[in-house]
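Project outcomes to date are best conveyed with an example. Our students and postdoctoral researchers have been running inverse folding experiments weekly, and each run begins with a structure described purely in tokens. The record below, which covers 129 residues, was selected by the lab manager from last quarter's runs and is presented without edits.
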């Protein structure tokens, strides 16, 4: 098992590909570097997706997230890149990533990016009394 950061995202077969269901993952320790100052940026990543045939393996996701620690990136660019890499790895029906960055200079930044598989429609929302 690798204990070094790496950009490879591993997947496994969705145990229930016939059903739409959501997987929610919270990554509270994302870090990258500000490309202007080189100072660390900290964020909580909130990932939610509806898998199709594949699911993201969590240990590889942890190592993938770790790989950004020494990289300079604007919040908008790194959020979109992470989503693109996750979509390429597992081809979900739907995926949303919200990157909730900590305060920097009195400003908080949340970046929300989404992917929708062509032709996929979510099931109607069920409201219970």
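After processing, the design step wrote out the following sequence:
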């Amino acid at each position: 098992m690798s204990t070094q950061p790496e950009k490879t995202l591993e997947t496994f077969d969705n145990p229930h590909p016939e059903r739409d269901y959501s997987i929610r993952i919270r990554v509270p320790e994302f870090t990258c570097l500000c490309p202007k100052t080189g100072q660390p940026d900290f964020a909580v990543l909130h990932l939610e997706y509806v898998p199709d045939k594949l699911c993201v393996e969590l240990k590889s996701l942890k190592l993938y997230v770790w790989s950004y620690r020494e990289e300079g990136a604007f919040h908008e660019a790194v959020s979109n890149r992470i989503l693109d890499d996750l979509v390429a790895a597992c081809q979900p029906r739907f995926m949303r990533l919200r990157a909730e960055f900590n305060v920097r200079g009195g400003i908080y930044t949340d970046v929300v990016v989404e992917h929708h598989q062509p032709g996929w429609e979510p099931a109607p929302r069920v409201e219970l009394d």
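Residues 11-116 form a domain with the GTP Cyclohydrolase I, domain 2 fold (CATH 3.30.1130.10). The chain is about 20% helix and 40% strand. The training component of this project remains on track.
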